[in-house]
Specification:
The protein contains 22 helices and 18 strands. The chain is an alpha+beta fold. Strand 13 and strand 14 form a beta hairpin.
Length: 579
């Protein structure tokens, strides 16, 4: 793979991780790619849905260490740079959440931001104000003070959430980065603080104590170490007891304790020289592939999944692994019945990293990827997508699940969608809003688990979502390549449902951030008779609020003049966040 291709691949992983809260590869795999491509950047550019906040002191990420030898090299390198024989290191657990910054002026919280690309973050002030235990006022504090930390969700709180979230880290990240602060307030976010900028402390240990004095939450697990043995003792203690902490940690952060020495060491463009994250190893185990399943997503993409003989990996029972696509299966020559090594690292979906071909039966046939949709038998296109769309039950169920998730209809999740679909009560999105009328002729209370109160609450939740923003309406339709970001661009440009619905290709091409693939997808979607009828039917049942005339982009065509710093296609591609 060329260096440019590597950089594009890394950029894609950054976008997924920092914007969409999706990890397709482990940290170790990511670090290998970055090292190979010689990249010195942090995170991902701030999401355009939020105002930007400049970090006066760059909010950098950390370099990672995975082996004892790398920790020893880190300590030796620091001692060499400082020309010292003794060095005090402070060790702190690395909480697996979302980094944030809170700025106080004369004791009042005035700004909060995410890391973003390390130099500019996303303004999440209103959302951060809802985090449990984060002080809004610091008595007797004058001047500017900046506190940095990690937002997370406890594992028990995560289990109580009746949401389709994949893990606590993604839930915390997605919750803080909500456009509606009320949604953030409804989520049990917590935090640990670990940095103080603008104080008078001399060591990191003093910083942590000062943060506690000011009323901030500080992780009680910490250790001052004077050698590698003491560092590893703390690391092993946290690793052995990590499942008892109640929240996810993925390593231990090692920092030079003396702040003056930290300043002497300085930073690279990507990370401080005075700190490193000693990451926990990815949990692995051997098991057998029982069957290779093909799932069809809402856009028709065929996703191969390995059904595994249950195996305990890192305290979690794993029964499935993501096989990604046809090429991945062929590249690794994965077959049903194979004994495989499965890895689960942090919030990454379990994946197969190796096949024990010595344990394979001589007669084991190669897996043949289907050339038609397993759900509706329609042909596949060149990108392994089902062409059946409106006739494919899997796609229709996927679109229904996507719709109720975008609208956040309480009590209406994936299981409810499948339940009503199987009963024939809903088939397309507009059917959700005619459910109440249909239930007049269907005694739902006779179905197991459905009481009168539950039915009433569900219908009230549905009715409460009949007023909707144009942005949410567009993003809820599940159009390929049209995620929340593109939906926002379209809503701000057209201003009203009527204007958007009558959009033509020429005008779509004038919107910066909407790429050619997105335009083709939109035109194709609105050219299908069934889609046109569905959209009209849905719109007739809803009150779709027009975009405020005060919106800076409402009804306007944005034109860039002069020379662009990047290729136009590259900039357009950044408007695509769903597929």
């Amino acid at each position: 793979m060329s260096k440019n291709a590597l950089q594009e691949e890394i950029k894609r992983y950054n976008e997924l991780y920092y914007r969409e809260n999706i990890s397709e590869i482990t940290d170790a795999e990511y670090d290998k790619l970055v090292k190979k491509a010689s990249i010195q950047t942090v995170g991902s550019a701030p999401d355009d849905r939020f105002s930007k906040v400049e970090h006066i002191v760059p909010m950098l990420s950390l370099n990672n260490a995975y082996k004892q030898e790398e920790v020893e090299e880190f300590i030796a390198r620091i001692k060499g740079l400082l020309n010292v024989h003794e060095l005090e290191i402070i060790c702190e657990p690395k909480t697996d959440g979302l980094s944030f910054s809170a700025i106080y002026e004369d004791g009042r919280l005035v700004k909060a931001a995410t890391r973003g690309d390390g130099y500019y973050g996303e303004d999440v002030t209103k959302n951060a104000a809802t985090i449990e235990g984060l002080p809004k006022v610091l008595p007797d504090v004058k001047g500017r003070l900046e506190v940095r930390g990690e937002v997370y969700i406890r594992n028990d709180d995560f289990l109580k959430l009746n949401k389709n979230f994949s893990n606590p880290r993604n839930t915390a990240s997605g919750s803080l980065r909500q456009l509606d602060p009320e949604v953030t307030a409804s989520r049990p976010l917590r935090y640990f603080s670990y940095s103080l900028i603008g104080g008078r402390e001399n060591t990191q240990f003093e910083v942590l104590n000062r943060l506690k004095e000011l009323g901030f939450c500080v992780n009680e697990h910490q250790c001052l170490a004077n050698n590698v043995d003491e560092i590893l003792e703390f690391y092993n203690r946290i690793y052995d007891n990590r499942h008892e902490l109640g929240y996810d940690v993925d390593g231990v952060v090692l920092k030079v304790n003396n702040l003056t020495l930290q300043n002497r060491l300085g930073n690279t463009n990507k990370a401080p020289r005075w700190a490193i994250a000693h990451k926990f190893p990815a949990a692995q185990g051997k098991t057998k592939i029982v069957k290779i399943l093909i799932q069809v997503g809402k856009t028709g993409k065929l996703n191969p999944i390995a059904k595994l003989a249950p195996i305990n990996i890192g305290g979690v029972i794993v029964t499935r692994a993501n096989l990604h696509n046809k090429d991945e299966i062929e590249r690794k020559d994965i077959r049903e019945g194979d004994v495989v090594v499965v890895e689960r690292a942090g919030d990454v979906i379990p994946k197969i990293i190796d096949v024990d071909k010595s344990a394979r039966s001589r007669n084991a046939p190669k897996f043949i990827f289907p050339n038609t949709c397993p759900e509706c038998n329609s042909d596949l296109d060149d990108w392994e997508r089902c062409t059946g769309e409106n006739f494919c039950p899997a796609q229709q169920i996927g679109k229904l699940k996507h719709f109720v998730e975008v609208l956040d209809i309480k009590g209406f999740g994936g299981r409810q969608v499948e339940f009503f679909y199987d009963l024939g009560l809903i088939r397309k999105i507009p059917d959700i809003f005619t459910l109440e009328e249909k239930l007049k002729n269907f005694n739902l209370s006779e179905q197991e688990g459905w009481g009168e109160k539950l039915i009433s609450n569900l219908l009230n939740s549905v009715n409460s979502r009949k007023t909707i923003t144009l942005e949410k309406f567009i993003s809820s339709l599940g159009i390929r390549f049209v995620g929340t970001h593109v939906a926002k661009l379209l809503a701000e440009h057209y201003g009203s449902y009527e204007n958007w619905y009558s959009a033509d290709e020429e005008e779509l091409m004038s919107i910066i951030g909407v790429g050619e693939k997105t335009i083709d997808s939109l035109i194709s979607f609105l050219s299908e008779k069934d889609n046109v009828e569905m959209v009209k039917n849905l719109a007739s049942q809803l009150k779709i609020e027009p975009v405020s005339a005060n919106s800076p982009l409402s009804g306007k065509i944005v034109v860039f003049t002069g020379k662009l710093s990047r290729e136009r296609k590259e900039m357009q591609a950044e408007g695509i966040f769903a597929c």
